[in-house]
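Handout, page 2. Input:
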Amino acid sequence: MSLLKSTCPTPQRLDAARRNSQRSTGPRSEAGKERMKMNALKHGCDAAPENEAAVMRALGEDPERYAALQRELATTYGPGDAFWNQQVADLGKLYWRRNRIERMETGLMRRALQAVEERKRTRRDQIAAATFDASSSLVTDRNLPEPTEPCARLRQLLSRVEGIRERLRRERVTGMKQLVIRQFLAPGRGWRPVRIDELMGIFVEWTDYTVKKDEKALNDFVNQQMGGAANVDILWREMLRLLEEEIAALKAAFEEEVKVQEEMDAIERDACLAPAGETWEMLTRQEMALDRSIDRKVRIILTLRQEHARRGGGGSRTAPTREPDDRAAEELSKVVGLDAGTESPAEENAPETSKSPEQSQHVIENKAPAAEGVRA
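Output:
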């Protein structure tokens, strides 16, 4: 008999699920529904007409500016009949959506720039934390965390080696100092750290024999390992010289790494002006589609104005009208789609704007029908 519980729904489970679903109905009061209706807002392109003002405020836009745009377009392209007014209103919505996409693109670039600035700030903070005085106890702290930034790691290593050099000038060499140097100089960096580690080992043993005051053992060690008493000072100066050279090499490596990181920051900052990725491509496609829609809508309105002038109804109150054209009616029919041959080659060959998965799944936001000019 299996010890696992059956996943088949039993009558008891179904009854419990039905009872639980009755408690998950969301807000019931009008005030609660009003507060919650903007929770699923993404881009606002599919919002219902009655929710347009709330969507604009939720996206940081001013509904009054939108109304002013509509009035300006109506003044420029009006007056006209209901069909004419609807075309002008649709044009205002297209312009507003076009501006919204530009804001989205600007937001993507600003977010990428902020990421670059955040990396620069993190690097500065880590370099500052990795820079300490030679007298600091951090010089020999083996539990000090290693920075994640390459520049900060080099700066920490440089601070340690400078501190060890200053201590070697004042104190004797001990086994602990050798362990610290061996750990932080990283012999894999080249021959110099290997030689420093070798000399440190020699002087650690020399210090031990000196502390024990065993003259015979000390003389034997000096003659066999150091080549005589005359070489003790020579080897000591060699060790300090190699430490100085290692410090100079670390400084050069640190400065070079700083230049490399600054160059990478400049490249990333320039790349932020031309973002890449699925989101950016989707916005670009929508922007191109809106540009085509705006161009088509403007041509429709201009053709309507020409037809209105041809019939003797006058033109716009502010914009100059063209001379009456006998072909205005024919052009109007072509523009509004009665004749498919009016599309330019670029428009005919333009790819169909694909929708994102969210747009396909959420055709209408806020559980209400979308307006004609606000569809994604």
